[in-house]
Design goal:
Elements lengths: L1 E4 L2 E4 L2 H8 L11 E4 L2 E4 H9 L8 H11 L2 E3 L13 H8 L7
Antiparallel strand pairs: 1-2, 3-4, 3-5
């Protein structure tokens, strides 16, 4: 399948991606991810391996779109993994006193 990542065309196949990712240890997933075989990789790591480009040169969306078209399972950022907003000192003091916290 022909796809464009970082303004460059690539001819990708599912078997080619599987072969490229063979032996690559997955980094910790902090954002969007793609499942290749039995492993889950960060989208940017997969993009770097298959395109041999710097991660700053392409977006995660470009790689997610290509991997989805090839039939891989991609997962986005869930609300649970998004960082929680910290309370200000005033909000924290109000919460300790039992007052409702304005967010």
């Amino acid at each position: 399948m022909r796809c464009v990542i970082a303004r460059f065309p690539f001819d990708l196949t599912k078997s080619g991606v599987l072969e490229s990712m063979k032996g690559i240890k997955p980094e910790p997933v902090l954002g969007e991810s793609v499942t290749i075989g039995r492993r889950t990789y960060p989208v940017k790591q997969v993009g770097q391996v298959i395109t041999r480009q710097d991660r700053r040169d392409f977006s995660a969306g470009e790689v997610v779109r290509a991997m989805t078209q090839l039939g891989f399972t991609c997962r986005g950022i869930t609300r649970d993994t998004a960082p929680a907003r910290a309370l200000t000192p005033l909000q924290q003091a109000s919460a300790m006193l039992g007052a409702p916290v304005a967010v």
